[in-house]
Amino acid sequence: MSFCCGASMIGTKGTLKHFRTHIHNVPILFCPVCNRVEIHHLVENEYEILAEYAHGDGAAEVDFQEYVEQEGKELLENCVNHESEDPMDVVLSQIDISLDLLSFAKQIDDIAWQGELKKRLAILSSRRNKLKERRTSV
After folding, report:
1. Residue 3, Cα to own-chain centre: how many angstroms?
2. Taking the domain 3-82, which CATH number applies?
């Protein structure tokens, strides 16, 4: 499981840009709070090699899945949430995790961590409210 700013990151596949080359279907993790993106650690080396070769060849676009075998690699099995899940379920799961962490931060009297968790909870609550608004307006 990967974490960013204390939130568990969400596993998905995305398009990354390496100089002028767009590489599609790269296994990535992104933070639902600050939107940071990182390449999944199990394919970092393969991504770097493919990106350098594609850039060297002057390719404008490359599909990661066509060049890198991913069989047997359970890339997203250690992720708490996945992009394919219902967005409301993802946000609610992230809120639950943050509340658990806040409770622990209070137990160990870590004031700085409590502040970070409260900021994260405010962002996640705002997202939850926006999702609720979208659902009721549809």
Report:
1. 9
2. 3.10.20
Chain position carrying tokens 């790269």: 26
One-letter identity of residue 40: H
In which residue are the tokens 């806040």 written? 102
Res. 124: pLDDT tops 80: yes
CA dist., res. 134 & res. 113, Å (int): 32
How many Cα atoms are found within 13 Å in the side-chain-facing hemisphere of 5?
Answer: 19
Beta bridge partners of 7: 4
In the structure, what pLDDT confidence band is assigned to residue 103 with cuts at 50, 70 and 90? very high
Domain ranges of the chain: 3-82, 87-137
Query: Exposed, middle or buried, 136 (CB in 10 Å: 0-12/13-18/19+)?
Result: exposed
Q: Are the beta carbons of 12 and 83 closer than 8 angstroms?
A: yes
- Cα 98 to Cα 29, 38, 39, 77, 103: the distances in Å are 18, 21, 23, 21, 9
Average pLDDT over residues 42-61: 89
